[in-house]
Structure formats: C-alpha cells, structure tokens
Amino acid sequence: MRNWKVLIIIFLVSVGTILEYGINYTFVHASSSKVNYSIIQKPTDKPKDKPIKILVHDGGEFCYGPIFSGGESYIVIEQC
After folding, report:
1. Which of 26, 38, 40, 80 gets the highest tally of CB atoms within 10 A of its CB?
2. 63, β-bridge pairs
3. How far apart are CA 66 and CA 75, in angstroms?
4. Which run of H or E residues covers position 48?
5. Which strands sit side by side in the sheet containing 53-55, from one edge to the other?
C-alpha cells in the first residue's frame, strides 16, 4: 500500500514539473514587420582619465603608466 502512495506522489510531481517547464508554443511570424526590436544607444561619455602623479623628495615628478605585454597589463613609473 505504501509503494502505491509513493508512486502516485512521484507521478504528480512529474506532471507538475512538466506543466511548469513545458514548451512555449507562442508562434511569431518571421516576416512580421509590425515589431521593431531596434535599440537606440547613446554615445559613450568622454574619458576623464588623469595621470596619477608622484612627487619625490628631491622635487622630481613621475607618473604611473600602463604597459600591455603578452595579454597582461603592468604599471610602470614614468617621467611626466
């Protein structure tokens, strides 16, 4: 008797899962010109990059600068 109840519960859970995640049969005609899916994008903002300056004790001025090599990026100290 217990096996019968377990089988019924498994069956009901399976049917619920199938109904929950069933195939959506909403048809859309391929040549429909009524729908316009174009997305208008605004231009990007201008970059606001500023160099990172370092003032050393003897009055020298240096800047951090990026270097890209072999697909990796590094930071070096350069003269501004």
Report:
1. 80
2. 53, 78
3. 5
4. none
5. 53-55, 61-69, 72-79
